[in-house]
Design a protein that fits this description.
There is one protein chain. The chain has about 375 residues and is of the alpha/beta class. The protein is built from 17 helices and 11 strands. A 9-stranded mixed sheet has the order 1-2-6-5-4-3-7-8-9, with helices on both faces. Helix 14 runs antiparallel to helix 15. The protein starts with a helix and ends with a strand.
């Protein structure tokens, strides 16, 4: 563990200090983070919380930091701080960004496009259908998109499951440590997300999901994204809090409308009425509002690629015209069947050749790799 990470980790256990206060103190000490952990130098700061110095002198925060580091090492947890290039840059722009983030999984939170999908725990059949439809449409239009939510029952878990089903990476932001999953019934879902996205929290292990933690968690859901989408919500609830936080962070906020007599559409309708959220009904609406409407551009690029590619690459690309996801083995079989029908007696290829062609196509931007070793037209 490098010294800077350990310093930030220690600061995160100095509970009288919040992220905002740490930034103030860093400015006070000209970004000398070691000064914040020196009781003598810190004692010179006016109006400092009295408990802070006793915590530092006791070594309690340092011991907690060491314990947390050992847990992370043992359990494959990645830890990052605001000075780390892995730290989500969208979140970094928020004035209350966490000092420390703990992450498990395989996704880059500085990817090009991220949306947060949130809603009520008491999801209706309408909310379920709309969530699944929206995620499916987004997957087709933006296969590199990451879907963020809170792993809660209802809209959150529906968004995570739909993302997994349609090949999108999805990240769950937790209101507790990475030594547990809440609710416990989402353990298998969380396990699947580790292979196609991940889990993220600012809370150290052994932190239980206290009610206040969920509001704290919601600001990360709001700050991580480019756009926050509310599917269903009552007139009061965590989803509305997340939406307002997203708007405060200058994120785009969207809501799906519903009947005025439906309890779990009233929150969405209120967001739209108060102009906190823009009304959307389909993924196409979102793409247009975000200027992500890339369908025509992608079609044009794909069409122009065929004449420019070498024959083996163009041959593979032509086999993928149906738009399905393909494994290298499937493409090998398709190519051989196609050649046989055409009376082509060329020597039979192998998986290694197909993989090489797929890598070349990926470098041109014609295809993208997705989960399970499959490929899809870009």
């Amino acid at each position: 563990m490098n010294n800077t990470l350990f310093h930030y980790l220690t600061l995160s256990f100095l509970h009288p200090l919040g992220a905002g206060k740490v930034r103030e103190l860093l400015e006070y000490f000209d970004n000398d983070i070691e000064a914040l952990l020196d009781p003598h130098r810190l004692s010179q700061v006016p109006n400092l919380h009295p408990e802070l110095l006793s915590l530092l002198r006791s070594g309690q925060a340092q011991r907690q930091a060491e314990k947390e580091w050992q847990f992370a090492e043992k359990n494959g947890v990645s830890i990052c701080h605001p000075g780390d290039e892995r730290y989500p840059q969208r979140l970094m722009a928020c004035n209350d960004a966490p000092l420390i983030l703990y992450q498990k999984g395989n996704t880059d939170l500085n990817t090009k496009r991220i949306v947060s999908v949130v809603g009520t725990r008491k999801m209706t059949a309408y909310g379920s259908r709309q969530t699944e439809k929206l995620v499916e449409e987004l997957s087709a239009a933006c296969p590199d998109l990451i879907v963020v939510s809170g792993l809660a029952t209802g809209i959150d878990s529906c968004a995570h499951r739909a993302s997994l089903q349609h090949g999108l990476k999805t990240v769950g932001v937790l209101a507790h440590g990475l030594d547990r999953i809440y609710p416990a019934g989402h353990y298998q879902l969380a396990e699947a997300m580790l292979h196609q996205g991940g889990l993220l929290t600012e809370f150290p292990h052994e932190t239980t999901p206290f009610p206040s933690n969920f509001v704290q968690r919601n600001r990360i859901v709001a700050g991580l994204c480019d756009a926050c989408i509310v599917i269903e919500s009552a007139e009061k609830g965590g989803s509305l809090i997340t939406a307002r936080m997203a708007r405060d962070y200058d994120r785009e906020v969207f809501a799906l409308p519903g009947k005025s007599i439906d309890t779990y559409s009233r929150g969405c309708n209120w967001l739209i009425k108060k102009q906190i959220a823009a009304l959307i009904e389909t993924a196409g609406d979102l793409l247009a509002e975000m200027n992500w409407d890339l369908g025509q551009k992608q079609t044009t690029v794909q069409g122009n690629l065929f004449p420019a590619l070498e024959p083996p690459l163009a041959e593979i690309l032509a086999l993928m015209e149906s738009g399905h996801d393909y494994s290298p083995q499937e493409l090998l079989i398709l190519r051989e069947n196609s050649r046989q029908k055409a009376g082509d007696t060329a020597q039979k290829g192998n998986i290694g050749e197909i993989l090489s062609l797929m890598i070349q196509l990926e470098l041109t931007g014609a295809v993208i790799s997705i989960s399970g070793g499959h490929y899809r037209l870009a």
